[in-house]
Amino acid sequence: MGSLNMKRLAKTLLSASITAAALATGGISTALADETCMSPYMAKIVGQEDFVYVWTLGVEGVGDGQDKLVTVDVNPKSANYGKVVNSLSVGGRNEAHHSGFTDDRHYLWAGGLDTNKLFIFDVHTDPAKPRLHKVVTDFVAKSGGVVGPHTTYALPGRIMITGLSNNKDHGGRTALVEYTNAGEYVATHWMPTDENLRGAKKGGKFADVYGYDVRALPRRNVMVTSSFTGWSNYMMDFGKMLQDKEAMKRFGNTVVVWDLHSRKPKKVLDVPGAPLEIRCAWQPNHNWCLTTTALTSKVWMIYEDEAGEWQAKAIADIGDPSKVPLPVDFSIASDDSGFFVNTFMDGKTRYFDLSDPENPKQVYETVIARQVNMVSGSWDGKRQYYTSSLLANWDKKGEDDEQYFKAYDWNGKELVEKFSIDFYKEKLGRAHQMRFGAYALYAKNSDEKLKGTALAVNE
Amino acid sequence: MTFSRALLTLGAAAMFAVTSWHAATAADPEQPVVLAPFYTKSEFEPPPPGSYALPDLGEAADGTVVDASGRVMRLHELLGDGKMVLLSFIYSTCNDINGCPLATAVMYSVQQKLRDRPELRDRFRMLSLSFDPTYDTPEVMRLYGTGFEGGGDWRFLTTASPDALQPILDAYGQSVIRDIDEQGKALPSFTHILRVFLIDPERRIRNIYSVSFLNPDLIINDAITALQTVASGERRASDESLKAPLLSTAGDNKDGYGDESYATRSKELLRRTGTEADLMHFVEAPPLGLPAVPIPADNAITHDKIALGRKLFFDRRLSLNDTFSCAMCHVPEQGFTSHEVSKAVGVEGRSHRRNSPTVYNVAYLTKLFHDGREESLEQQVWGPLLAHNEMANPSVGAVTGKIRKIPEYRGLFEQAFDGRGVSMETIGMALASYQRTLVSADSAFDRWYYGKQETALPESAKRGFNLFTGKAGCVACHTINEEYALFTDDQMHNTGMGYRESMGIKPPTERVVLAPGVFVDVDREVIDSVGLAPPADVGLYEVTQNPYDRWKYRTPSLRNVALTAPYMHNGSIGSLRQVVEFYNGGGVANELLDPRIRPLGLSDAEIDDLVAFMQSLTGSNVDVIVADAFAAPVGDVTRDDPNWAHEHVAGDD
């Protein structure tokens, strides 16, 4: 992967040839990036991003109380640097959570974990001012009862959506659901159960049928999913849930390795304690992905062994697991040399060195705020962005409930805060997931707007 | 878990202690290289009981044995007796980790697993017979057995002499050779091959287990399978009590989650299908043990109303944001309540302060909700529909207006209500009609008590019934009479449970399970930092404003109580056994505690019997009702429904 000039990129985009074969070559500098968390099928911003889109949860009594896509200008050369330049309310409180671009990066799909709506934003017509293009409201009915659309992950011409729950009992049994980029339902892929493993084999004792994140390693024809919990838990007051003996038994303890092409589960791996985000390695000789377990506070490696068999092993603790720091988002470097990981309860971000991928070593930590959830970095690794909200009813209460977007510079040794936006003071709500926008992605924008932005297309 | 060391100490409690934080990954350097699967993990899920056959492997031989009290008896006296028997040959000083201690550990595990399954526990006996009569005197066997007490029928036997033992060993094919040292001197140990025998009530051997096959779940499933296929008419009647309802089981079964050995038994949602039933039948001819179903004069029950009510009951569009039907909290296969949360969660995850009560047999109630504030089902339905923390509809009109615009309902109200359309009243009448049909009885208890079938009820449940109506006094509130039993007095009582909640009586830390067998104690202040203060709940007082009514809640019926965990108005108790223990302890003291709540002095065995009795109250028609519910379509938003989001939005052509 590496930089392309604008015209080449535009051609690439226009010819819609961003496929596994469209591999560009070039030098890679160490970089930590939100960009690396995204689908390998997608165009990347490798220079200065212009905007961060923050999928924000409405809060009853704060502003209009609705979920919104908030656009923050993050280009230091812009007159609006550090300001909210757009706020697009979508109606209702839907439990805004994650979002993801289509492979052509023209649209941003954002799910509502509660109301099961999929909000499709047009981000290419004017990257500074996204528009609500379409709302899918019949996701549950179309999918055959899947509730809680979570990750929206780009595959060529399609979006793979992980579910978290179902419409029968609001528990954790769920499925993956596939849509076309145009917003039409394609298929539902149910998670393997003990009653029907769908051809998968169990690597351990569990086949809990839960879902959360999805990532792919196309090189190995592998798709990996993790497992969180059902609607009743992710919507419940966190303190109430911790005291509910029945509820606490209902967290995922598995990672499923799938055949990416056939969408068939291959193996169910035991990864106890709610494995959440999945980040797959980028280097061609690295046949592994990492995940972190929210409850048991460990880093797990999901890897292909020498015999070609997929396995899981715990490779590091995050903080002191007995204190349940609750690791949440993490972001891996494009050369797989390290990752940032946040822990919600103590508000810290930690940097782990991955020189030896099987033995991550923490080399840096700092407190971001009283609570922290998401971390996203620029492609060049020089900028890191943080937001605060985990889930509407899991966020801390009272004064600890800080809601913010914070921008930092990362010099390789420490984070230096550049600016911070108080999402309560701005009457916006709870700041959750971040995605980057850049004029340079879209060829029709002026050369002036493109200045300073370099792009890459990688596998 | 440091299993081998613990085994050698024969400390059963220590062997199965709850694991600590790092236990799941702790390695034990003293373990032998190859351990029996029981110690590590099961390589497979035992097939479901009854899904396979266990052939007859021949007669279980007789012999003369001595029990731990020194009584000389025939082995056959302990075989038969209507019970499955698990027989192992051991000697008390055995220290081969894959030998006698394995058999004993597996048997202890079986005993633990059967503890809360009285229907099988009462028909299961375990025998540990020593093959070292020289050392293992009755007194030694008695001492050996004290480490494994746990409420099961487990006998520790020996023989009077090697001569009395040998025919038994021969008959069971047990080769036992005393070890000798290099000088030919006898050692205290034996070389033997581990064999454990499963023997049916007709004294036929139905399975033989070696080291690799000694799996507690497999043995239990084998026992059920064998019992189901014993062709004796004498036993067939009571075998019915073993048949658990097939559909009222968790799709996501978390029983045993606190144990490291937990394995999932997940079911397919796609196989959650059923057949529509004629529910009117249950209204016209209530099952044995129930009186006539009360029908209000102004809401005669009809097939059309039942069908419409059922459709509404499962329609998630009846909530403000299309996420909640009645059935999301009253889940059919979870006893029309919710097993997965102790207190309900409503729209946008808003906290409810109480447990979802079951809908089974609500037709008979004159006071609805835990605080008894509503008087008819027709009115009751509007409580959840309009509650901010339940279905959160902003008004009656918002609901009626929405239903009128959903194409699927076109004409249905008019058809069910003689031309009357969607209204507050007709919605109430339709939902009430469906719920009124969910009457369920003809349980094992009913067949015994009202049907006079002597063998319908297991002996333990009969003993439990005597306690229920006698020493334990449960019947004072969970009433029965000579014609029928509702198991509720329909009155309000203070058990102290509400008082404890209001007064915030809690330990300083909360034990939280993070993964199977992994626990951590969380400080109360940490929990408080991520939780809202619990809403007030003063029970009946909130309805009457009478201070003497503080913390009074309605007596729930006990019918189908085995299907409706967790228990109490706040869902704070997970099992029936713990409920009985709560009452056995006299509830929670407070100035308004109902005088009938007092320490009961029940023994462990008596508590087991009471639980067995409550487990016999599951109606015979629950599978029919649940299958009917499965057949009902779940209402979700479609593109035909009115919704602003389908209307033109910017950029959408």
Structural commentary:
- The complex is a heterodimer of chains A (459) and B (653).
- Chain A has one domain (6-457): 7 Propeller (Methylamine Dehydrogenase, Chain H), CATH 2.130.10.
- Chain A is globular and about 55 Å long.
- Chain A has helices at residues 6-14, 139-143, 231-234, 238-242, 447-450; strands at 43-45, 51-57, 68-73, 84-89, 96-101, 107-112, 118-122, 131-136, 146-147, 152-155, 158-162, 165-166, 175-180, 185-190, 201-202, 214-217, 222-225, 254-259, 264-270, 275-280, 288-293, 298-304, 310-317, 327-332, 338-343, 348-353, 361-367, 375-377, 383-387, 404-410, 415-422, 430-437, 455-457.
- Chain A starts with 5 loop residues before the first helix and ends with a strand.
- Chain A is 6% helix and 39% strand.
- The model of chain A is unreliable at 1-33 and 444-459 (pLDDT under 50).
- Chain A contains five helices and 33 strands.
- The relative contact order of chain A is 0.17.
- Chain A is mainly β and 459 residues long.
- Chain A has a five-stranded mixed beta sheet with strand order 15-19-18-17-16, with no helix packed on it. A four-stranded antiparallel beta sheet of chain A has the order 4-3-2-32, with no helix packed on it. In chain A, strands 5-6-7-8 form a four-stranded antiparallel beta sheet, with no helix packed on it.
- In chain A, a hairpin with a 4-residue loop joins strand 18 (254-259) and strand 19.
- By secondary structure, chain B is α+β, with helices and mostly antiparallel strands.
- Chain B has three domains: 51-239, 3-Layer(aba) Sandwich (Glutaredoxin), CATH 3.40.30.10; 280-440 and 632-644, Cytochrome Bc1 Complex, Chain D, domain 2, CATH 1.10.760; 455-624, Cytochrome c-like domain (Cytochrome Bc1 Complex, Chain D, domain 2, Orthogonal Bundle).
- Chain B has helices at residues 3-9, 12-15, 100-114, 118-121, 138-146, 162-171, 216-229, 233-239, 280-284, 303-313, 377-380, 382-386, 396-405, 412-416, 424-436, 444-449, 459-469, 497-502, 524-529, 541-544, 576-584, 604-615, 622-631; strands spanning 64-66, 72-74, 84-90, 124-130, 153-157, 176-180, 186-192, 196-199, 205-209, 492-493, 509-515, 518-523, 553-554.
- The longest helix of chain B is centred in the first third of the chain and has 15 residues, at 100-114.
- Chain B is elongated, with a radius of gyration of 29 Å.
- The model of chain B is unreliable at 1-33, 231-242 and 648-653 (pLDDT under 50).
- At the A-B interface, strand 8, helix 3 and helix 4 of A face strand 11, strand 12 and helix 19 of B.
